Amino acid sequence: xxxxxxxxxxxxxxxxxxxxxxxxxxxxxxxxxxxxxxxxxxxxxxxxxxxxxxxxxxxxxxxxxxxxxxxxxxxxxxxxxxxxxxxxxxxxxxxxxxxxxxxxxxxxxxxxxxxxxxxxxxxxxxxxxxxxxxxxxxxxxxxxxxxxxxxxxxxxxxxxxxxxxxxxxxxxxxxxxxxxxxxxxxxxxxxxxxxxxxxxxxxxxxxx
Length: 208
What we know:
Elements: H1 7-14, H2 29-39, E1 51-56, H3 59-68, H4 73-77, E2 80-87, H5 94-103, H6 109-123, H7 128-152, E3 156-160, H8 165-171, E4 178-187
Antiparallel strand pairs: 1-2, 2-4, 3-4
């Protein structure tokens, strides 16, 4: 049987981590907004959607950020930097989220009340380190969607975990419950990314 690759598979394989960008190319803010809206279809723990975004387009601010991000060139030359953050107080939005689900007819009232109570009671009691792990995981899920959607729109990206998170939080005056997770450079490639190999499935997967 011949298996035809889907458009999603094509985008997945065409997405590469690009580090050289056309610094004169700027993505319209409306498209960046559309990208983030689409990306929020990602799943999250108890659907609490803890991701927050700081989209940095200003050239002077990007130059400052480059120093915080280990002098990575793409921080300054890409069209924008999408900082993906995690809110460890995401459970405070449980009522609004599940009430909206109820109003849209996705759940009944009993389920709404149950999910609100369960979410608040569970997450509000968790240690900060556990909450950080949860929001970091969820930020990873939406970050991958951002990069795939960007490629589908004709743009290139590279994720960056190597930056001074404490300095970032201080520079952008983040509240204590907002955790910097990853920076994503987005723009038009000025040079192709390197290809990279993958470990064979037999070494990373076991079927039982």
